[in-house]
Amino acid sequence: MLEVSRTQLFDTLSQVGVHKGDGLLVHSALHVLGRPEGGMQIYLDVLQDAVGESGTLVVPTFNFAFARGEDYNPAKVPADKMGAFSEFVRQHPQARRTSHPMQSFAAIGAEAAALAGYDVPSAFDDGSAVDHMVRNGYKLLLLGADIQAASILHYSEQRVGVPYRFWKDFSGRIWREGEWQDAVYRMYVRDLDMDARLEIYEIETVLRQQGKWASVDLNYGKVALTGLADFTAVASQLLQEDPWRWVTNKPEMDV
Question: What pTM does this model have?
Answer without folding.
Answer: 0.96
